[in-house]
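Fold sample X.
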Amino acid sequence: MKTIIIRMYNIKDHMMRYSLFFLICINLIWSSFSYEYLLFPKDARSIALSNSASAYNRTVLLNNPAALSKTVEKKVYSFILLPADIQSGEFQVITEKFKGVLANKLSILNYGTIVDSETKNPTSAYDVLIASGYKKEVFDIISIGFSSTFMHSSIAGFNSNILLCNIGMRGQLLNNNAGLGVSVENVPFIISSYANIKERISKNIRWSIFYSPKYIPLVINTDFLLSNISNNIEIYNGLEFIFSDILTLRFGISNSGKYSIKETSYSNFLESASFGAGFSFTKYNLDIGFMNLGPAGYITGLTIKNKLN
């Protein structure tokens, strides 16, 4: 978002008079390239696990579409609150169709109203994503998946539209107690840009693994992400402790440092930590998640999964 705001300054000088608080929060929360919402964790479980667990069974469409799990038809509602009252909401429907798993979702990120400090004229900024994904199992141990996403982004009257594709594969071993996944994410087809400036889009390759010890109620998740923007490998780790059929505790950590303004490894560790819990009931599941953003505060997420059948 920082890149977008700077470019808007070159196009329209008065747009740099926005609220200082808003600018500080955006710089802390997002890195220096556009369309960061594509990498943003959009449900409470992903927040609690630091956006890892891309190879483990998921009842929501996320990074690797091949990880979609066969499940009773569900509706999933997620709400995420960020500092500066920035809000994200998502709705998904997951069902078994066409001899596989089909997921459709709508995601909205609302940055709120921005007021020009001189003219007092309000304006808005938001992102909207519409996505559909499909997963098919092959030989009961290998899954392949594909998803497509249409994204509309609007900032102070400047708009962009883009179509993106994700392709993934996931294999399971040791009676499904271990797995390995790989996905190519955010392959872009730009329909229209904010301005006559080429925007940078993070095209990623993600390797992910999980392991669940046979006699310990624990799931260990690790994701390795290589982006064409940073050219660095970021590591995302998550642990799930399954205490009972009702309660699961989650913890996560990453080395991305994208939410940190300090350089020490200790501060990066603390400022990228996340945690949360999951509760399973007869008719619905409830997940909560928290992610530390360092000086900016916390991301808080709530997800409810409703069984339709």
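Fold sample Y, listed below.
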Amino acid sequence: MDKKDVYFWLIFFVFLILIFYQIKQTDIKPYAIYSTDIGDIDNDQISEELVNTFIRGYAELRDNKILIASDELNTRQDLNKDNDLNDIVLNYFDLDTKELTNLGIDIGSGEASISNNIIAYTLSESENNEDYNQDNDLKDFVLFYYNIYTKEIINTNQQVYSRWRGSIPTITGTSFYEHKKGISHLQSYKNIIVFSVSELDLKQDLNLDGDIRDILIRYYNIDTKEIKIVDSNFDISRGFVIDNNIIIFTIRESKELEDYNNNGDMTDHLITYFNIDTGKLKVTKQKMYNGDYLAFDYPYVMFLVQELNLASDINNDGDFKDYSPLYYNIETEQSKKFNLGLSIRTGLGKDIIAFEKNNILKYYNINEEKTYSTLVKLDNVGRILFKEGTIYFTKGKIQYITLTSHK
């Protein structure tokens, strides 16, 4: 190879590198839509589709939109145009139009939630080197929200407690997972944003019990700008969920020094709910266990109980590692357990339980007491969720199936 050839190939490779760099800087959609007809899997005479969005990130579905926190490093795109790939950026995907909207908002180690075209999220002052609530420090997570219709960003100046400071952010619609498992400190429902606060951080005795040691729930009304408190300690290790203006959380009897379910001890974690409309708080007798995470689709509080806690091998596979869904109706105060023997990767809905079995996506119709197979393979699935008639899951990228009989 002579000098001319060497120069030619050198110039050629430099040219390719420049083109690649230019492509990386352009506003390419970080997704593609690929739909596959998977047949009539719910027996309603209408075929369903498996939709692969090719979007990477953590997700929450509410009001027919999937809110997504995308890691720029995973998507290999500078989504907020700040010349790095270090951010966690908010997007939302519309199930009706199949369009993705990139908000360009970097939430870092904050949290986010979507409802009624409002996206609530928290920002870390220390990560962004900005005193958002003007209290002369850079230690806080502060609550913001974005209005999809008006495109306005509002700083509420409210400090939000997060025990996950510096960890991977979570999107929290169905009380996701402990940053992958089911615990949230920020949720939204229509015009209400619910969040947790630390009395110690605020240096205030919010519930007037003579100390500033409590972690409490506050809620913010977007229309009136009012901020109110739920006057009850809650078990922060399990987070909270909201639907129909009712906040569901758990309390520890040991913290309250009271045997609420009259079983002779004060060791239980009990489901508790607060009605925003009436201002009433009720501690139920329904016990929760370690490892549970909450989901709520009014009137059902739904969670998984491990076989170990039930002292029963539900699916007769020789171990106590599997989970059984348990549904508690806050109106009738009755509970129901389903002996399905599932993994933690299970999506709980009012009438559908979506799960993986032998690497196949299946779902159980509660009303029919029948299991259906989607025939969709789920090798290395990250998470399965069910909301508003849609099973959505992460398998590297976000995919979903909308059951036509449940829309």
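Sample Y note: The longest strand covers residues 280-288.
Also: The first helix runs from residue 3 to 25.
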